[in-house]
Amino acid sequence: MSTDPRNATDTVVVGRIGRPHGVRGEVTIEVRTDDPDLRFAPGAVLLTEPAARGPLTVVGRRWHREVLLLQFEGSGSREDAEELRNTELHVPVADLPALEDPDVFYDHQLVGLAARLPDGAPLGEIVAVRHEGAELLVVRRGEGGELLVPFVAAIVPTVDLAGGFVVVDPPEGLLDL
């Protein structure tokens, strides 16, 4: 594994900077982590994409209704905040805590796995995980289309990280969508 902090295989996205909030350099954050209080604690250093905008050090954090607002070191004005808009915030994979539940996975562990049917027939490759009320695996099929597969044990009974695949046991009609 490469140690280049900008290498996508070594980092995971934990957020994306949105619009400025107010005039003192705060920005809204599209949260993409289960633990925003840990990931965005004051003093946290976040890698960025594009890399030239970072790394960024969190100096202020607060919730405004349901929106997380952050302020970064060196960002003291609305103009400074505007320059950070649409920047992805990353942390090194090595900094993620180990998962205690063997049936729980980080998104980056699933992306890139082959999806197979129970008989071993190839279904495609997992290219993303969506969190839209339920977790959905985005499987790119050979002919270029995509399939959304609910990530539940009844439909995805096997996840073999070492083997590089998941087994998808689709209910009737899922593959026809």
Q: Into how many domains do the coordinates divide?
A: 2
SSE string, helices as H and strands as E: EEHEEEHEHEEEEEE
Main pleated-sheet profile = 6 strands, antiparallel, barrel
- Count helical runs: 3
N-to-C terminal Cα separation, in Å?
Answer: 37 Å
Integer-rounded radius of gyration: 19 Å
Secondary structure class reads mainly beta
Q: Helix coverage percent of residues?
A: under 10%
Beta-strand content bin? 35-45%
Unreliable spans = 1-8
Broad CATH class of the largest domain: Mainly Beta
- How many strand elements? 12
**Which strand order spans the largest sheet, edge to edge or round the barrel?**
1-2-5-4-3-6
- CATH superfamily descriptor of the largest domain: RimM
Report the average pLDDT across residues: 86
CATH architecture of the largest domain: Beta Barrel
CATH topology of the largest domain: Elongation Factor Tu (Ef-tu), domain 3
Give the overall form. Answer: elongated
Description:
Binds ribosomal protein uS19. Keywords: Chaperone, Cytoplasm, Ribosome biogenesis, rRNA processing. This protein has 177 residues and is mainly beta. The protein has two domains: 85 residues, Elongation Factor Tu (Ef-tu), domain 3; 66 residues, PRC-barrel domain (SH3 type barrels), CATH 2.30.30.240. The protein has three helices and twelve strands. The strands form two sheets. It has a six-stranded antiparallel beta barrel with strand order 1-2-5-4-3-6. Strands 10-9-8-7-12-11 form a six-stranded mixed sheet. The chain is elongated and about 60 Å long.
